[in-house]
Amino acid sequence: MKLSVAIDGPAGAGKSTIAKMVGDRFNLMYINTGSMYRAITLSALEKSISYEDVDGLCELMNDLDMEFQNDELILNGENINNKLTLPDISANVSNYAAVLEVREKLVHLQRKMSEKYNVIMDGRDIGTVVLKDAPFKFYLTASPEERANRRYNELQRKNIDVNYDKILEEIKKRDYIDSHREINPLTKAEDAIEIDTTSMTVDEVVNVISKHISSNLDRIIIKRGNDIQ
Ligand code: CDP
């Protein structure tokens, strides 16, 4: 059995930065499930397929091959990561992510990855659906204003022209859609450890998570016969 760590939480809570660092510490493959939903959104928008066109989306997904290399998503052999955080994708992704067929396809793919590798996966439904049996689950939060601030700085660093108020509004809208959708909404798994990162540094969050994993790892390996090679 492989070892898995689930990280969930709303947009901008710091999931990807933290998951990457914890993954490095424990030699886990980092799977950013949000980038998979974003990749479908990107491809659908490029081909003008609306989120309401389920047949069109299913056909599109049949032709999409996804794998992770060095923490980045490779779509049909191409590294498309610099396109995935563009504002147009962020503004549309939650609508595509609410489509049952899209979720079924990606959850299946994510589970297959977790059967093959020791993983740290971040997203919205990892602890509740994708890796329900994961021995380590964390739920990261922060105030909407702090999350918008982080996203604003991240996009500015990438020289993408952004407006703070618009980002805050988009984050609140996405939070609403993600936590109110019918299928696998964003919610904290009962057995997840919640960490409010509003006034914490990245290193502090990584340390809290790493400490918890380190101090329970031996017990988990013995109990579940995890393969940590
Ligand atoms: O990085 P950020 O938190 O802004 O978002 P993300 O992790 O890239 O996810 C983008 C969107 O994909 C989310 O707002 C959700 O609508 C959707 N998503 C999902 O539904 N389930 C997941 N496991 C991951 C992402």
From TrEMBL:
InterPro entries found in the cross-reference section: Cytidylate_kin, Cytidylate_kinase_dom, P-loop_NTPase
Gene Ontology biological process terms in this record: nucleobase-containing small molecule interconversion; pyrimidine nucleotide metabolic process
Gene Ontology cellular component annotations, sorted alphabetically: cytosol
Signal peptide range in chain numbering: none
Keyword Acetylation: no
Highest rank taxon of the organism: Bacteria
Main localization category: cytoplasm
Enzyme Commission code(s) on record: 2.7.4.25
Keyword Chloroplast annotated: no
The entry's keywords: ATP-binding, Cytoplasm, Kinase, Nucleotide-binding, Transferase
NCBIfam families: cmk (TIGR00017)
Protein name: Cytidylate kinase
Biological source species: Clostridium bovifaecis
